[in-house]
Design brief:
Blueprint: H1 5-21, H2 25-28, H3 38-62, H4 72-88, H5 91-111, H6 114-123, H7 125-128, H8 130-144
Helix pairs in contact: 1-5, 1-8, 3-4, 3-5, 3-8
């Protein structure tokens, strides 16, 4: 069983912590595309980490991984549906929650039983390798801030 994802998750979580630590409130309001800000991007990351944390808990309880086929249009619809709520989250709360969610999901991902890890990695590795999602958004946020 391959647990190399844990080191990758740790590295991107540390990058996330460093990024969040240097953000000002003005940075948090900086546009990230036509409808998002940096704050919304962080709330988005926290939301998806929390969602997968809940799925990890469920799969551990039932002892099996059940995952529908990847559907990007559904993910976009979920993100669009969450925008109104994400806009209400204060910069302070977004900073806190993105780190707390990353720490919890990464910790859970490391402690999953080997058969579940193997099953997740065989079906949709991105679910377990949270670093992939973080990296994509951190790259976008750093570019948006000119860094």
């Amino acid at each position: 069983m391959d647990r190399s994802y844990a080191a990758e998750n740790d590295a991107e979580r540390q990058r996330l912590k460093a990024f969040v630590a240097r953000l000002s409130d003005a940075d948090m309001a900086h546009p990230l595309g036509p409808h998002w800000t940096i704050s919304i991007g962080l709330a988005h990351l926290a939301f998806w980490d929390r969602l997968w944390l809940a799925k990890f808990d469920e799969w551990e309880r039932v002892g099996a991984v059940t995952m529908p086929a990847a559907d990007l249009s559904l993910a976009r619809a979920i993100n669009d549906g969450m925008l109104t709520w994400w806009r209400t989250i204060s910069p302070l709360q977004a900073r806190h929650e993105v780190i707390a969610a990353a720490e919890e999901v990464d910790s859970k991902a490391e402690r999953l039983p080997a058969p579940l890890i193997d099953a997740i990695l065989s079906v949709r590795p991105r679910t377990l390798i949270r670093a992939t999602h973080r990296r994509e958004h951190l790259d976008d946020m750093e570019r948006a801030l000119g860094g």
